[in-house]
Structure formats: C-alpha cells, structure tokens
Backbone:
C-alpha cells in the first residue's frame, strides 16, 4: 500500500453534560485526506482544497500530528498529504480534530498499523494543541474511536469508547460566524458551587447509564448543562430559539457543539432528525445568517478508508 | 399477613466519586424491624433494642417515614413497630436510612404492596429529613433498591438502580467516634474550580461505564475524590493510614462512607476483602480507638423479608 484516501469525520464534543470529556462521532460530514508514501523522508502537505489553510507542517494540524507520530516511529520513507476540508475551521464540530486525526490514521495504515487507533490519539492531540493551545482529546478521540467516547484524563491518555445505542441521529446547524475556542473559554466562570458540581456529576453519570441501557428518556433528561451553556450560548445567535424548536420537534436534547457556534440536536430516528433540521432552518431563515446544516447517524467506526493503492 | 420481620441493610453512600448521588447496599449488617398490623389506627413504636432511641413517632425516623406513607395511603388499620438496631447512629453507613426504609418496606408488604420499592423511597426520605435536616435519597435508595444506586435528582424523585458487577465486596471499618452529618457538611467548601468539576464528572462517568462493562480497573481508578475527601478525612482518625494499607492489600478503592467516620474499601473477592479487614484492624489496634468492622458482598436485593405471620 503506497497511497490511502480516508474520510475523517466531524465530531460533537461536550454533549451538554460532558464538558471536555464527552464526544460523539458524525458521519457524512468530515475531511478527506490522501496520504502517499515518498522515498524522500519527512512530511509535505502538497494540496489543500475547501479552505485556505497553511501548508507549513509546523502550523497545519495535519502536519503537526504527523510529525508527532514520526518522532516516535522509525520509518524509512516520507509522506505527502493532501487535505480536502469538508469541516470548516471554527465551526465547533472538530475541524482541526478531523485533519489531525485523519493524517495520523492514514500514515499508520501506510506503515502497516504499528499503533492502535487509541494509541494514535496522543499524536492527534498534538494537532489540537497547535490549533487551540491545549492538549484536548475529546474530538480526536471521537474521530479515531467512533461512536460515543469518554475522556477520563486526557493528559494521562485515559480515554475509551462508550457503547453506541441504536437509532440515534444528530442534527447539527452551523451559523457562519466564527467563535475562537480561546474566546469561548475566556467567557467561562472559574468556579462553580458544590451544588452545581453535584448536578453536573449526576447528569454525566445518568447519561452514561442511559447509554448502556438504551434508555432514551434518561439520556434526554441527562443532557443538561447549567454551568457552561448559559454563558457560551450568549455568543451564538438565536441559540434559545433553535433549542426550543428542536425540543418541540422531538429532539432528545439540544446544546452547543464543542465550544460553538454549531448547535447540535440528538434524536431518535432519521425522520425526527430531519424534522428538526427543517425547524432549525426556519429560525435562521428569518435572519441574515448563513448556515450549514448536517444530519448524521452516529458513526460507530470513526475514520474510514475510502481507497488504497 | 399480620406481622413481618425484615432485615434492612446498612448502605455506603458517595463512594468517593458520587457525592450525594451514589449508593451501595450492604449485606449482613443492618437493622431488623418487626411490624404488626393493629386494629387501632396509627403508628406505635413498641420496642427498640440495640440503641437508646426515642419511641416518639414524630422523632424516630422509622415513625416519621411510616407517617409519611400513611398520609398518602388509605388504611383501615394501624401498625406496631419494633426496631432492633444493628447499625449505629452516626456511623456513616446509613443508620437512619436502614430504619426509615425498613419501616415503610414492612408496612407496604402488610398492605399488599400498593407501592413499588422505588415509590417507597420518597416516604423513607422523610425519615432522612428528620435525621439530618434534608431530603437525602442516596442511602434510602440503596437500601430499598439494592445493588449500586444512582440519585439523579432526589427532590424530583429521579433515582434508579445501576447494575451490579459480580464478586465485589465491601470492607467497612467504623471507628467509634461520632461525626454529625451537619458538622461534616459544614466543613465542605462552597465552590470548586471548573477543573475540579470536570475531574469529578470524569470520575463518576467513568465509574458508571466501569460498572456496566465489569471493568474493575476502570472502577478502581474512577473512585477518586479530590474535593470532599481531603476536607472530611481530617475528621477521621488515621484515615490516610487506613486508605494506604487497604490499597496496598488489594482494594480497588478506599474512601469515606457517606459523611463518615466509617471508611469503606471495595475489592474483588471475599479473600481480598478479608485481608483488608485484617490490615485495617492493625492500624486501629495501635490506637485506643474502639471500632466495628464489617465485610459484606453487594446486596443486590436490598431489604429482605425474614419471616411473615
């Protein structure tokens, strides 16, 4: 195998009740990366489509994560990377994660899989650090492991895949405004009350129990965030309207995807997810906002191989 | 059925990672209650053994919970209650919960079970309120549902049983000092950092995932409490020594039971639980402290019927 084309999916982090620890993997929306072995050692980004991004491998997250992998791996070849961006940077659905996870996944395949997908997370996290300044694992773990993923302790590489109950769909709307992760972090409070801590603990615990027992009602009433969402949602136009209309159209839950501005709704079955998409569109169509909208089942597989040569 | 004798178990709340939301049900150690139907309406506590406690039904938690049940239930008889205390008040293993849950369980049986065990929790919580001033559900839910239990939102009666992985044993040591729940609440901080909140969320979420996947390593590294334990443990003699020796003798985890002073260790298999008990004893035998020690499997059933007439 000398060349591989992969689909590297967008991801939804936080999921209301799991700030910095929960992630879910989408399908349909993502980046495509083509990676080719070269005789000349080193990494070169040869082509980027879909977005204007740097080809400098110490700046572009796909280069940064690839370099992290090669620092720990003996190889007698180099790699050319083409990046076809399907996820817009700053959208809140793991744009940098898709590229940084995709590149290490592809290189690992070309090398005969010396690493498990889980082991690749630490390299992909270096890409995340280049993008947002910290070693965040939630989006890259979701992209590499698929399904719902949990980051117990990112810095100590303690993350794992949860189970994936059937029939769940995401509807994600991305209003075309950019919120920098650093800005959406700056708006957060530094301290919360013990009662809020207990409430958040109760929500994440119940959510996990709901996942493992296919209890959709429990999942729905656990995806609540009374700490982060009230602050960050002020940065997102019409957040409350989108949330209200999603819930009244059958969403189990609705919240901010990652640090926003994308808003996700989770629902059971494609038909409900589609109704929610139509309802969300109605809200933004009354404004001047441009937006993208995606409907996606849970992608249980994570990054997918499209083609090898 | 005119008379019933029940065993109402002690319980371990909090379990390090689930402050106010997690509980587990013990076996072997608990109260016994005998409840008899009487022609004369009303509740009378006729006998209490094992402890000096008030027989006033508006003060004794078994009376308070029974009254709460009768307020919502039409009955044409009354009840006599005998309480044989096996759990010492102020021990931190749910002494009041055992009595308040036991009395409503027994009365419900005598009435032909108009309520599910889950529905009885709200009545038992009234007993807890009489004991500690607030409607705490974690211990009574564990006593009534058995196994590991989760309180998502006690005030709104949102609690449920988790699963019970096999082979788990508790070792619980109770140093004979009394810590009032109100005092151990007063020592708590009012606010925690966002990082601590995330850490606690990560621990409870991972613990629940560990339970549902029989992943004992994950359970072990999730039963961590860096918010409450550092404060409350200062009230418990030799806490750090007990914890250290428990972990070095094979405990998956060790922490404060409820608001203390009892200390629990969780381990896999009776033999390890017994080793831990011996090791714990060694620590306290070097002091003047008196103590009780219990080894118990998880009681998956909860309150048990001993005899009916």
Residues:
């Amino acid at each position: 195998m000398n060349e591989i084309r992969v689909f590297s999916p967008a991801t939804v982090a936080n999921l209301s009740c799991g700030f910095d620890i929960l992630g879910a993997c989408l399908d349909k929306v993502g980046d495509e990366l083509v990676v080719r072995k070269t005789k000349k050692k080193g990494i070169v980004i040869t082509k980027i489509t879909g977005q204007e991004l740097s080809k400098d491998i110490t700046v572009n997250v796909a280069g940064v994560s690839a370099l992290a992998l090669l620092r720990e791996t003996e190889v007698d070849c180099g790699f050319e990377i083409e990046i076809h961006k399907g996820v817009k940077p700053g959208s809140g659905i793991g744009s940098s994660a898709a590229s940084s996870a995709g590149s290490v996944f592809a290189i690992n395949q070309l090398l005969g899989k010396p690493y498990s997908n889980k082991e690749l997370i630490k390299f992909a996290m270096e890409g995340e650090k280049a993008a947002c300044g910290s070693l965040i694992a939630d989006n890259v773990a979701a992209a590499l492991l698929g399904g719902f993923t949990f980051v117990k302790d990112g810095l100590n590489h303690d993350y794992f895949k949860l189970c994936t109950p059937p029939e769940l769909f995401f509807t994600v709307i991305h209003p075309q405004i950019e919120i920098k992760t650093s800005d959406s972090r700056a708006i957060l409070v530094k301290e919360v009350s013990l009662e809020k801590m207990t409430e958040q603990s109760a929500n994440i615990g119940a959510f996990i129990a709901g996942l493992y027992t296919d209890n959709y009602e429990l999942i729905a009433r656990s995806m609540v965030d009374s700490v982060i969402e009230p602050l960050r949602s002020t940065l997102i136009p019409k957040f409350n309207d989108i949330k209200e209309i999603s819930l009244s159209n059958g969403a189990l839950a609705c919240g901010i995807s990652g640090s926003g501005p994308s808003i996700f709704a989770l629902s059971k079955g494609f038909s409900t997810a589609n109704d929610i998409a139509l309802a969300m569109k109605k809200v933004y169509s009354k404004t001047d906002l441009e937006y993208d909208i995606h409907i996606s089942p849970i992608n249980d597989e994570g990054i997918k191989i499209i083609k090898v040569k």
